[in-house]
Amino acid sequence: MEFPSNVRYTKDHEWIRLDGDIATVGITDFAQGELGDIVFVDIPTEGETLASEEVFGSVEAVKTVSDLYLPVAGEIVEVNADIDGQPDLVNSDPYGAGWMVRIKVASVADVEALLDVDAYRALVGA
Questions:
Q1: Among 24, 73, 100, 112, which residue's beta carbon has the most beta carbons within 10 A?
Q2: Structure pTM?
Q3: What is the pLDDT of residues 44-53, one digit of tens each?
C-alpha cells in the first residue's frame, strides 16, 4: 500500500496535493483497496464551489457505492476526464492518473491542517 508524503489526507480517505492555490484530489490507495474494483465514477460538480466535507461525487465499485467528500472548501475547476472511460485508473494509480478533481482552494491553510502521512498511516493502522 502506498502512502505518499507529498499529499495531505482526510479521515474519509481522500488525499489532496497542493500546487499554488490549485489542488488535486483523489481517493487513497487504502480506500480503493477497501472498495475493490471501481466500475464507475460520477462527478457532476464541475464549476461548483463547495464547502469542506461536502459531497462532490461518488465512486461505484462492484459491490458498493461511496460518496466522495471534498477535503477543503473550494471551486471544482476540472474533473479528470480519463476516469470516465477508465475508472480502473483509480485502482491502478490512485495518486497519479486516477485523480478525481482539481480545485481552486479557498484557504491554503485548510490544506496544511489536514492529516500528514504519519497521522494517516496511524489512522488506517499501517
A1: 100
A2: 0.95
A3: 999 999 999 9
